[in-house]
Amino acid sequence: xxxxxxxxxxxxxxxxxxxxxxxxxxxxxxxxxxxxxxxxxxxxxxxxxxxxxxxxxxxxxxxxxxxxxxxxxxxxxxxxxxxxxxxxxxxxxxxxxxxxxx
Length: 102
What we know:
This protein is mainly β. The protein contains no helices and nine strands. Strands 1-2-3-4-5 form a five-stranded antiparallel β-sheet, with no helix packed on it. It has a four-stranded antiparallel β-sheet with strand order 6-7-8-9, with no helix packed on it. A hairpin with a 2-residue loop joins strand 1 (3-7) and strand 2. The two termini are 26 Å apart.
């Protein structure tokens, strides 16, 4: 069973396979720890999508907003960038793992 806990400074998602933590003290990173093999990853949330003539530079990051969808939680971050009018970084967390979309 997947669970979500909101704290004063972040969000914690846990299930049998992994723990995911967002802490606003480290606003550009999400940490994921596997419970099966101890693998730990610190993911940089606002990944860049460069254009041929310009690099994608993040100027701010808002969020996450959190939604429940069937058997998963969706964490969505809004990113301000120098080349994109709209940019969202989305983490879909279910019992099988985490999918990351931009």
